[in-house]
Design goal:
The protein contains 13 helices and 16 strands. By secondary structure, the chain is an alpha/beta fold. It has a domain of about 240 residues: Aspartate Aminotransferase, domain 2 (3-Layer(aba) Sandwich). The longest helix has 18 residues. The structure holds ligand KE4.
Length: about 400
């Protein structure tokens, strides 16, 4: 079990299924059961499982070798695709996971600002980085406490945890800690407490507070990047961060993530600068081949028009059965009747009822996230038939 959420414990399964293959919108387990998949490896597979163009690109790359540990043209081409998609990103560093990208981004922001404090939001997840595995202390603006054993208090004492969508909390935090604040890091659309969109003005306010305090604004677009628009949340909401973290779709389902931003910041990274960051498999040729096979097709605006159409269909169909929150091709059906604006709201959802819905759907060959606090990841492999079948199965549960 190489990642906890896969154990499916949160939805009451004693044993998760073990995947054997994926095809389009479907995943098959080792016992031959076939499920309509709304998890899609947690977001990377915007063209579905076993996407032919991606598989062919990876196969061709593998024929030439699986790793070089030397610069390759594909890394430069993938960086160029990312720079073309996100104008705020002038330079890119490729790494192997979102966690590694977030960890490196925090180090870079601290070095660039010569400050140590980081502000994050409860319910936002940026990988299992020690400094970001912090939970809010008591009170509005308090220094973080370790959210996991093994995380020293020394590494979270400089992490402040605020409530998502709460501009006043952030403003008071910046007023108190602004001098020492290196960065505000945020999922511009939260996906790790279930889908929680930014309220109007929230992201803009974060930008203004960073501007005023000299902190850097970091958008963690590991989920939203290339999903809710080609240019992610920063395109969709027209708010420009100083640094961006990418992953999932950017690697086409292979182990690749990235971080990037203004050249004056990125130039601080070794070898051009003095901030150390490295990786044996960074820019791996198989992963860059997969990333390029996907990102080049995402230049077509029709892709996002179609994802929006299908997302709207799914949202409309699920709406009578709970609180649906969706941005583009990411959505969550919360078991509550109330709006979910932050992690406290999300935790008031009926997780037992969600677990019962999960099991009801799984028995009918439909696999949704094994946690209320995740998203449904719509892909171009999910057609109207898959959407309508899911809506009907949820309606049957709710009847
Ligand atoms: P990885 O280290 O798992 O590649 O990326 C960490 C990460 C960073 N930022 C955001 C916004 C993320 O959502 C993630 C990872 N997402 C989870 C699911 N929500 C991965 C699933 C898992 O942990 O198994």
């Amino acid at each position: 079990m190489n990642s906890p959420v896969r154990a499916m414990r949160a939805v009451g399964l004693d044993e998760p299924f073990f995947a054997r293959r994926g095809e389009g919108a479907y995943i098959e387990d080792v016992e031959g059961n076939r499920y309509l998949d709304w998890v899609m490896s947690w977001g990377p597979l915007i063209f579905g499982h076993g996407d032919r163009a991606t598989v062919d690109a990876v196969r061709a790359a593998a024929e030439l070798g699986t790793s070089f540990g030397a610069p390759s043209e594909a890394e430069v081409e993938l960086a160029a695709e990312i720079v073309d998609a996100l104008p705020s990103v002038e330079k890119v560093r490729l790494v192997s996971s979102g966690t590694e990208a977030a960890m490196s981004t925090v180090r870079l922001a601290r070095a660039f600002t010569s400050r140590d404090r980081i502000l994050k939001f409860a319910g936002c997840y940026h990988g299992h980085v020690d400094a970001l595995l912090a939970r809010a202390g008591s009170g509005v603006a308090t220094l973080g406490l370790p959210a996991s054993p093994g995380v020293p208090t020394a590494t979270t004492k400089d992490t402040i945890v605020c409530k998502y969508n709460d501009v006043d909390a952030v403003a008071s935090t910046v007023a108190e800690f602004g001098e020492g604040l290196a960065a505000i890091i945020v999922e511009p659309v939260a996906g790790n407490m279930g889908v929680v969109p930014p309220e109007p003005g929230f992201l803009e306010a974060l930008g203004q507070l960073c501007e005023a305090s000299g902190a850097l604004l970091v958008f963690d677009e590991v989920i939203t990047g290339f999903r809710i628009a080609r240019g992610g949340a920063q395109e969709r909401f027209a708010v420009t961060p100083d640094l961006t973290i990418l992953g999932k779709i950017a690697g086409g389902g292979l182990p690749l993530a990235a971080f990037g931003g203004r050249a004056e910041i990125m130039d601080r990274l070794a070898p051009s600068g003095d901030v150390y960051q490295a990786g044996t498999l960074s820019g791996n040729p198989l992963a860059t081949a997969a990333g390029l096979a996907v990102l080049r097709r995402l230049r077509d605006p029709a892709v996002y028009e179609e994802l929006e159409r299908r997302g709207a269909r799914l949202e409309a169909g699920l709406a009578p059965h709970g609180r649906v929150q969706r941005v583009g091709a990411m959505a969550t059906l919360f078991m509550t009747g109330d709006p979910v604006r932050n992690f406290d709201d999300a935790q008031r959802a009926d997780t037992e009822r969600y677990a019962a819905l999960f099991r009801h759907l799984l028995e009918r060959g439909i696999y949704i996230a094994p946690s209320q606090f995740e998203a449904m990841f719509l892909s171009l492999a999910h057609g109207d038939e898959e959407i309508d079948r899911t809506i009907q199965a949820v309606a049957d549960f709710d009847s």
